[in-house]
Design a protein that fits this description.
The complex is a heterodimer of chains A (about 525) and B (about 325). Chain A is mostly helical. Chain A has two domains: about 90-270, Vanadium-containing Chloroperoxidase, domain 2; about 275-510, Vanadium-containing Chloroperoxidase, domain 2, CATH 1.10.606. In chain A, about 55% of the residues lie in helices and about 0% in strands. Chain A has helices at about 1-25, 70-85, 90-100, 105-120, 150-175, 180-185, 205-220, 225-240, 245-270, 280-295, 340-350, 355-365, 375-390, 395-420, 425-430, 450-465, 470-485, 490-510. In chain A, α13 packs parallel to α16 (about 450-465), α14 (about 395-420) crosses α18 (about 490-510) and α17 (about 470-485) runs antiparallel to α18 (about 490-510). Chain A is elongated, with a radius of gyration of 26 Å. Chain B is mainly β and about 325 residues long. Chain B has a single domain, classed as monomeric porin ompg (Porin, Beta Barrel). Chain B has three helices and 19 strands. Chain B has a twelve-stranded antiparallel beta barrel with strand order 1-4-5-7-8-9-10-15-16-17-18-19. The model of chain B is unreliable at about 1-40 (pLDDT under 50). Classes of the chains: A mainly alpha (about 525), B mainly beta (about 325). Chains A and B meet through α1, α4 and α12 of A and α1, β12, β13 and β14 of B.
């Protein structure tokens, strides 16, 4: 009896302990990069003279002159702003803290999230056929787009280029008109972010908000309403931060509208629409490779996918490559060569002797379906470095523009190589071979991860020299991760890395001449 | 002071959970720690108790497979995975500590694989899954005119015993997280040998560690830590003891309901954060030999009949159990009913 009572008491206290433990272990798992507003390391007052990508120079997009700060119009704007600030709601304060004074990083993260959301490969229909996402019927199913690595690299490139050109324009007018922030004219205005002397007309935040909404709405048409909400919240937080009056913001959105239109015009005619081919075109590409080399990659899924991923992405208009064939690597080894046979042995060895370290590396860099893809991974690193180095929005945009132009070019060059050589994957060539990750639906040579990562690393090493050793190490690891996973040959990775470095150099050579260094 | 101690304890617990890197990935499809023991007589979730100073050792082999799974609530095939098989060998000991209190310890070894041809050419996974300990206590025992009513409470704790990767679904062998469970069990034994029992349980799961530091769970997560949903567990069964209480036959329903989580996305791999619901029906038989005292065999079969983010599993198992009195070193009588 006593025993029983003791046991019951024990059980009760154990239950209590369990309850406490389970409640207290709730974690906040981060859903975005954790950073706060910061003081910019430079203001770049000559930024308006930097060479943009799509437009001739910083004065190419016209906005009207601002009202003088002594004018009634401006005074009226300031008093409206003060009134708005006095009634800031908690959710508005939260928005001010979230967007920070470098919202470029936030919009990049939003892009990465949309990529991860839409990076889903369509599955087969009941009858074994496949339906492809269709821009003219975005709801699908399947939903448009399938945000695979080439799609992701392209979305990021147009976003970043438009942001960069928009901000060069903004900087041009800021220092042309020199209208300071309202908190500098009226010290009763509380400014939410660290002070700086960058003029406020036009608002750089508004350029970023408008460009991001417009480019992303075109790239992710099902997200138009969501993106509008984000833009509204962002524009309002710009005002309530005390940094801008209404006319600063509308001048920024005017620039945003104009540069977005130019960027989307280029996008409409860059060849992406034709990248996913019909089966007939795909078969002829495959037959051409077989004729040239005596081999051809096959999709081994069940049911077989009739067409690989974007066979003509290699024909999309690059940013910095003059002649796509000039950056195409030499042919991969023939099946009877010693090099090839050695690679078969290496891959079998990895598969038969998988270690937790090799598995970890394979998984860390996998960035497969449902994730932000390898280009997204390198954007994430760039976001972290931008914050670490306290870059202002203009420098951040330059970083992202050169990174993402190079990354899209890396994709174009890699895809050109893939479908020119049409080289088989390890699972096609090695009997009974098993992988620890999904084999993608496109030819093996060269490795997309390797080209993207080497390109990303080199551009980041140029912009952040202190990170050079680190990022190059990451690129090497990303490349070999595909060999560990069983998805690529070692020469796919090795030659792909060299290819990526070349592509990056083209972007770096251009960046060095843009007047910012 | 008390507070501080508690916080330290909590931290320790959280740490343990997040460091558990193993590969228990059955989760989605696999639901292991909840169920690997439930087919045994002498398990944390049944309504049996052994006499004190008795030990029962169980070894079982289970073979399960599915060729359809629920992506959200859409039942689909994936020919590139083919038929996924999962083979489990479980070793378990049940110990009668004092009257009305049993302890359990168990450890499964699991191996998963796709049938050939495997269009994706994915490698399966294998390894030791979670070690589980449990205590079952009889809180009530009442004799009524029509039979005997018993109530039990079980507390359990399971944690990965090897470095398996949970974020490798559907091949992973477990959820890769620690789990606290509480079960309340009621049983009514009729005088004619039939019995009815019901169980409700709740399982607190911790976090599991992936090998990537970004994943999508209705939004971005910049972390390698994944929150594994807690779950309710329901069971209801009808059974009968036959042949001088040597043969037990039971039919049961087992339900699992996650309390949170996301759906598997279209034609995408499952992940440990998924909301998993399972409805399963099961038949089991257990026989104690007359000649060899304490030796029994068991056989069972169960089918998942409905679910959410889980495989449409069909499982069959066979086991051997041997019960003996460790104090007197003589073989015990079959369990109390």
């Amino acid at each position: 009896m006593q025993n029983q009572m003791k046991s019951k008491k024990y059980i009760k206290s154990l239950l209590f302990a369990i309850g406490i433990l389970s409640i207290s272990c709730e974690k906040d798992i981060p859903t975005y990069l954790s950073y706060e507003e910061y003081e910019f390391s430079t203001v770049d007052e000559n930024g308006g003279n930097w060479k943009p990508i799509l437009i001739e120079n910083g004065s190419a997009l016209i906005i009207k002159s601002p009202d003088n700060v002594d004018s009634d119009t401006y005074k009226n704007e300031v008093s409206k702003l003060k009134e708005a600030i006095t009634s800031i709601q908690p959710n508005q304060q939260k928005a001010i803290n979230y967007w920070t004074n470098n919202p470029l990083v936030r919009w990049n993260e939003i892009t990465l999230e949309l990529i991860a959301k839409y990076n889903l490969i369509p599955g087969p229909n009941e009858d074994g056929s496949y339906t492809l996402p269709n821009a003219n019927n975005p709801e699908g199913p399947p939903a448009f787009p399938f945000a695979h690595p080439p799609y992701a690299s392209r979305a990021l490139a147009y976003l970043s280029v438009a942001q960069y050109d928009g901000l060069i324009s903004a900087w041009h007018y800021k220092y042309l008109f020199n209208r300071a922030a309202p908190y500098r004219y009226d010290n009763s205005i509380v400014h939410a972010y660290p002070e700086n002397n960058i003029p406020s007309y036009p608002s750089d935040g508004a350029v970023i908000a408008r460009v991001s909404k417009k480019i992303l709405s075109a790239m992710f048409p099902l997200e138009v309403a969501y993106l509008q909400e984000l833009e509204d919240e962002h524009l309002q937080s710009l005002l309530l931060s005390g940094s801008y009056v209404e006319s600063d913001i509308s001048a920024g959105t005017t620039i945003g509208d104009k540069i977005s239109e130019l960027a989307l015009t280029r996008a409409a005619t860059d060849g992406m629409k034709k990248a996913q081919t019909t089966k007939a075109v795909s078969d002829s590409i495959k037959a051409a490779a077989f004729e040239r080399f005596g081999w051809q990659w096959e999709n081994l899924e069940i049911p077989v996918r009739p067409v690989g991923l974007t066979p003509l992405f290699g024909k999309v208009t690059p940013w910095n490559i003059e002649n796509i064939a000039s950056v195409r690597p030499v042919a991969p080894p023939k099946f009877d060569s010693a090099e090839f046979l050695e690679d078969v042995a290496i891959l079998k060895n990895h598969a038969n002797n998988m270690t937790s370290e090799k598995r970890r590396i394979s998984n860390f860099w996998q960035d497969g379906t449902g994730t932000y893809t390898p280009p997204g991974h390198w954007n994430r690193f760039a976001n972290e470095f931008i914050v670490e180095y306290h870059m202002n929005p203009l420098r951040s945009a330059r970083t992202m523009a050169y990174l993402n132009m190079a990354m899209m070019d890396a994709g174009i060059s890699c895809w050109d190589t893939k479908y020119y050589y049409h080289y088989p994957r390890p699972i096609q060539m090695i009997e009974g071979f098993k992988t620890i990750a999904g084999t993608p639906n496109f030819p093996s040579y060269t490795s997309g991860h390797s080209v993207f990562s080497a390109t990303g690393a080199e551009v980041l090493a140029y912009i952040f020299p202190e990170k050079a050793t680190l990022v190059r190490g990451w690129a090497e690891e990303a490349a070999i991760s595909r060999v560990y996973g069983g998805l690529h040959w070692t020469f796919d990775a090795k030659i792909g890395t060299e290819q990526g470095k070349k592509i990056a150099q083209l972007a770096i050579d251009k960046a060095k001449l843009d007047g910012s260094d | 002071m008390i507070c501080k101690t508690n916080i330290q304890l909590l931290r320790l617990f959280c740490l343990i959970r997040s460091k558990n890197k193993v590969i228990f990935n059955v989760g989605l499809i696999l639901l292991i720690s909840l169920n690997s023991l439930s087919a045994f007589s002498q398990s944390p979730s049944d309504a049996l108790l052994m006499p004190s100073k008795n030990i029962c050792i169980l070894v079982s082999y289970e073979s399960g497979n599915f060729n359809q799974y629920w992506e959200g609530n859409y039942l689909r095939k994936n020919a590139s995975i083919g038929t996924l098989s999962r083979k489990t060998i479980t070793t378990m000991a049940a110990i009668g500590i004092i009257k009305d209190l049993n302890a359990y310890i168990s450890l499964p070894y699991i191996k998963t694989a796709s049938s050939e041809p495997n269009g994706g050419h994915f490698a399966g996974a294998k390894g030791l899954q979670d070690i589980a300990i449990a205590f079952k206590y009889r809180t009530t025992e009442k004799t009524l005119d029509s039979g005997d009513l018993s109530l039990f409470t079980t507390l359990s704790f399971a944690t990965p015993s090897s470095d398996y990767l949970s974020d490798y679904m559907p091949y992973s062998i477990g959820l890769g997280t620690s789990e606290f469970g509480i079960r309340e069990i009621a049983k009514f034994q009729f005088k004619n040998g039939f019995y009815a029992q019901a169980m409700v349980g709740y399982f607190w799961r911790g976090y599991t560690e992936a090998e990537r530091d970004y994943y999508y769970n209705n939004g971005s997560f910049y972390s390698n830590i994944m929150d594994v949903p807690n779950a309710w567990n329901f069971e209801g069964g009808l059974g009968v003891w036959l042949i001088d209480n040597r043969l037990k036959i039971e039919a049961s329903y087992i339900g699992i309901r996650s309390t949170s989580g996301d759906n598997i996305r279209a034609y995408n791999a499952p992940q440990p954060t998924n909301r998993v619901n399972i409805d399963r029906i099961a038949l089991s038989a257990q026989y104690y030999f007359k000649g060899i005292k304490g030796l029994g065999v068991l056989a069972y079969h169960n089918n998942v009949v409905n679910g959410l983010n889980t495989g449409k599993f069909s499982n069959s198992g066979l086991g051997l159990n041997y019960q003996f009195n460790y104090a007197k070193n003589i073989n015990a009588e079959p369990n109390e009913k």
